[in-house]
Design brief:
This protein has 1 helix and 9 strands. It is an alpha+beta fold. The N and C termini lie far apart (45 Å).
Length: 108
């Protein structure tokens, strides 16, 4: 491979590695509650939220404060891309079990 092409493919490989390696945080849903109920994430950068539903019923992960809404089937996990967000506290909830499924993203 000519040197210039090699250089270009190394640069492209670098970019795709960066996209794949966004920091990931996990929220478990168990007994219609989020674990942890408060999750600390970094301000000003994009990250992945793995929402892992261990209940035998579907849930909908939702936040009006960071504007996401996605169904999580029973015994399945989904990925939600969030951010970058400014410092603050952002509530989220399980739309199907709002009486117990409440949580906060602490962005700092
Ligand atoms: Cu909803």
């Amino acid at each position: 491979m000519p040197r210039r092409l090699l250089l270009i493919s190394l640069i492209l490989a670098g970019f795709s590695a960066t996209a794949a390696e966004l920091p990931q945080y996990t929220l478990v849903i168990r007994n219609h509650r989020f674990e942890p109920a408060e999750l600390t994430v970094p301000a000003g950068s994009k990250f992945k939220l793995l929402v892992d539903n261990r209940d035998a019923t579907p849930e909908e992960f939702e936040s009006t404060e960071f504007n996401r809404e996605k169904v999580v089937p029973a015994n399945h996990a989904i990925t939600v891309y969030v951010g970058p967000l400014p410092t603050g506290r952002y509530r989220f909830f399980g739309d199907f079990h709002q009486d117990t499924a409440q949580g906060v993203l602490v962005v700092e």
